[in-house]
Amino acid sequence: MTTQAPESRARGFIKSPFDLAGGLFLIALAVLGLAGGLTLPTGTLSAIGSGFMPRVVSIMVAAFGVLLVVQAMLFEGDSLERWHLRGPVFVLGSVFVFALAVRGSTLNFGGVLGVPLLATVHVPQLGLVVAGPLCVVVSSFAANDTKPLEIAIFAVVMTLLSGILFKEVLNLPIPFDPAGLIPEPVSGTYSGLKWALAQVINLVKNAFGR
Amino acid sequence: MFDSFAQFATDLAGNLQLGMGVALSLRNIALCFLGCLVGTLVGVLPGVGPIATITMLLPITFGLDPVGALIMLAGIYYGAQYGGSTTAILVNIPGEATAVVTTLDGHQMAKQGRAGVALGIAAIGSFVAGSVATLVIAALAVPMTAWALKFGPADYFSLMVLGLMFAVVLARGSVPKAIAVILVGILLSTVGTDLESGEERLTFGWTEISDGLDVAVLAMGMFGFAEILRNLESTQARDVVHGAIGRLLPGRQDFKQSAAPIARGTLLGSVLGLLPGNGAVLGPFASYTLEKKLSKDPSRFGRGAIEGVAGPESANNAGAQTAFIPLLTLGIPPNAVMALMVGAMQIHSIVPGPQIMTKQPQLFWGMIASMWIGNLMLLIINLPLIGLWVRFLKVPYRLMFPAIVLLCCIGIYSVNNSPTEVIMTAGFGLFGYALYKFGFEPAPLLLGFVLGRLMEEKLRQALVISRGHFTTFIDCPLWKGTCERPISTTLLILSVVILVVAIIPAIRAGRDEVFKEA
């Protein structure tokens, strides 16, 4: 944990912003827990209901949240850690992109919580062959020493290797090809190459008796 | 007495023979080998600990039968553990808490051009420790299972409370935060359809989570993605050892210095690994402290003393292995890695617990035998492959992390073929990042999450049996000359004692010191 030295100037009411933030975080989680189980029956002690555990645990989480808040007001502590945006945005964004593209999906904007449905976006199934490089490239924006050509080549190589491993060797049902998006002359060559590769892998697999 | 011992030894030999018969088939040896190899390969990556490694590699076991899958998973686990030690020695970055101690003297040895010897003694110590720990597991399995069958719901509940209390004491940082984060884990475990009433809980009408949250999603988010986010922020330069690795086989003098530490480390690690609530993490710390105390010249420690690698590495591996005992006999995972193992086993429809041994002896003893084979495998494959690992470690992080992200995505998609779960994993990545920023540890949360469901079930059962009397957990009126629930009562008293001990400032200072030693 990287802790910064407590600042010398008086912070007034709040002596430990670090603990305060932790406490408020817990209280927020507890509120979510209580709200999500509002309608569930608590039951009786001899037959506890489905709402008992979420409620009791939420209240305990809230209690520790309050404890941390009080502690933050009484004892000198660390200041808040800096949040960085770049890492979370690109790393988690790349995961999001992968999830949307690999099997295709439909995104609704609005349509919940009283907001009218504003737009619907259909993402076609692009398969690992597109989603893989996309994921690698988007996530690479999180680092500040990324080299464009290097990451482009690396993205293709990683995708091919993982395609061979997960699709051909392990037979996992992850979609590899874009669904119906490859034009005819290209797709013929493409299928031929894949067939040849599959034969080689099968030879190796059979040698191991699987 | 002698007769019963002879009987015990005969049974043990018979069971191990049964296990060897299963584990020594060509196919299972190949699976064990592959598991160790890919486990080390991924575990060697800096910042990728055993939890992330196992989650990432889970899909490669999917096409296998339960026995083969378990053997491979165990191989991945040992591989990941050993890979972490390799990174600790060569790059000075511990993959997880238990490898922290190895960085102290291991990396110093590497800087002095003795990286090969450090890795060699780590492998040899781990092998010795692993062999002993396998025997310990085999010997304890039968009596522990018999004991576990006496456990009622109340006893199980109290045992889990004790385990979580241990996890609190052994977590770093503040005690209230450790307890709170476990409670958050338990809260997350209640998400989804309630098994008894069929009511949806905490789903907010979102049907995707009505089956509950997947442990793999949680683990991958908090240990895979959040860890990458942390690594991207750390400015600490990676310090890959340059130049020669040196010879691998330790010399006569090295062996002489290491023999006793390996023996002591094995003993310490085996015993501590048995404790519920991640006792295994204590092993390397305890071993290091002990060796330093026993040494004639303690000042050598921290400057490349071979004892400081041999002892803790043995303790680490012994603990990593005996941690299987609570899982396999009681069905209760003692730490976050084992919690993930529960999830992995459930995917292959194996429910860990006392009934495995009685109902599926082939699987049980096959797995135990394969533990020993896995340890041997590590020794054989790792020493020649160290050059490869070094080259691997020199891949810059700017390439490594996008590759890890891609493998995590493919892995988590493959668990249930669900793109939604991939997005949820990203969500838990953010959650894990927030936890880190607010000073909460993710490992106790994962343990609380896995134990939460079981705790609620046992709590309900215990209260139904006792007709709603909470006293069923401490039903032990000794003054009336009876004791209805001796196990549960003892466990709860122990839990309270441990908690009090954790809060007392003097001992807390001592605890912080143990961790600070690293």
- Biggest interface pair, counts: A-B, 82 and 74 residues
Backbone CA Rg of chain A: 26 Å
| Beta fraction of chain B | under 5%
Mean pLDDT of chain A: 84
Mean pLDDT of chain B comes to: 86
| Main beta sheet of chain B | 2 strands, antiparallel
- Taking all Cα atoms into account, the compactness measure Rg of chain B is 22 Å
Percentage beta strand of chain A: 5-15%
Span between termini of chain A:
47 Å
Query: How is the largest sheet of chain B built, in terms of strand order?
Result: 1-2
Order of helices and strands of chain A: HEEHHEEHHH
The count of helical stretches of chain A stands at: 6
**H/E series of chain B:** HHHHHHHEEHHHHHHHHHHHHH
- Helix residue percentage of chain A: 55-70%
Q: What is the number of beta strands of chain A?
A: 4
Number of domains of chain B: 1
Concise account of the structure shown:
The complex is a heterodimer of chains A (210) and B (518). Chain A has six helices and four strands; from the N terminus they run H-E-E-H-H-E-E-H-H-H.
Can you give a write-up of this model?
The complex is a heterodimer of chains A (210) and B (518). Chain A has six helices and four strands, in the order αββααββααα. Chain A has 210 residues and is mostly helical. Chain A is elongated and about 70 Å long. In chain A, 34% of the residues are buried. The model of chain A is unreliable at 1-10 (pLDDT under 50). Chain B has a two-stranded antiparallel ribbon with strand order 1-2. Chain B is built from 20 helices and two strands. The radius of gyration of chain B is 22 Å and the shape is globular. Classes of the chains: A mainly alpha (210), B mainly alpha (518). At the A-B interface, helix 1, strand 2, helix 2, helix 3 and helix 4 of A face helix 2, helix 7, helix 8, helix 16 and helix 17 of B.
Question: Which tags fit this structure?
Answer:
heterodimer, A: 210 residues, mainly alpha, two-stranded antiparallel sheet, two-stranded antiparallel ribbon, 6 helices, 4 strands, elongated, B: 518 residues, 20 helices
